[in-house]
């Protein structure tokens, strides 16, 4: 993904502190945190479902196609799940970044 080149100056540390104290910015950060924590919990549960499922239950050890059993398919699905979560995170982060980019000019006007 190409970096966006901006001709505008970045905010100073004091301006960022003022922006970070705004309720709208704090709400965006809460949304980001909520998404990251939810995705992490989901991934950890999904990841540990395989060893727990194969260790304590027999349904994943059942052959599905030849010697290919449910555990192999579940393990393969973890690769897809990691990519899906990564794609969802990038989309979510891009939306939040876009909303924050809209707040920066407002902050510049207020601090000028």
Structure explained in plain terms:
By secondary structure, the chain is mainly alpha-helical. The protein has one domain. It has three helices and two strands, in the order H-H-E-E-H. The chain has a two-stranded antiparallel sheet with strand order 1-2. Helix 2 runs antiparallel to helix 3. The two termini are 33 Å apart. The model has no long low-confidence stretch (mean pLDDT 86).
Please outline the helices and strands:
Blueprint: H1 13-20, H2 23-56, E1 63-65, E2 68-69, H3 70-111
Antiparallel strand pairs: 1-2
Helix pairs in contact: 2-3
Descriptors:
single chain, 112 residues, mainly alpha, two-stranded antiparallel ribbon, 3 helices, 2 strands, 4% strand, transmembrane, DUF485 domain-containing protein, transmembrane helix
Concise overview:
The protein is 75% helix and 4% strand. The protein contains 3 helices and 2 strands; from the N terminus they run ααββα.
- Binned, the helix content reads over 70%
Distance between the termini: 33 Å
What's the count of strands?
2
Gyration radius, rounded: 22 Å
State the domain count: 1
Total of DSSP H or I helical runs spanning 4+ residues: 3
Q: What does the average pLDDT come to? A: 86
Structural class: mainly alpha
Organism: Laceyella putida
Transmembrane segments: 35-59, 71-90
Keywords: Membrane, Transmembrane, Transmembrane helix
Protein name: DUF485 domain-containing protein
């Amino acid at each position: 993904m190409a970096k966006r080149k901006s001709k505008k100056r970045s905010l100073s540390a004091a301006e960022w502190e003022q922006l970070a104290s705004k309720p709208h910015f704090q709400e965006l950060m809460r949304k980001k945190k909520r998404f990251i924590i939810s995705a992490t919990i989901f991934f950890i549960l999904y990841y540990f479902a395989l060893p727990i499922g194969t260790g304590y239950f027999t349904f994943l050890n059942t052959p599905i196609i030849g010697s290919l059993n449910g555990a192999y398919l579940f393990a393969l699905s973890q690769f897809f799940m990691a990519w899906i979560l990564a794609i969802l995170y990038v989309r979510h982060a891009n939306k939040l970044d876009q909303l924050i980019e809209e707040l920066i000019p407002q902050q510049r006007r207020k601090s000028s």
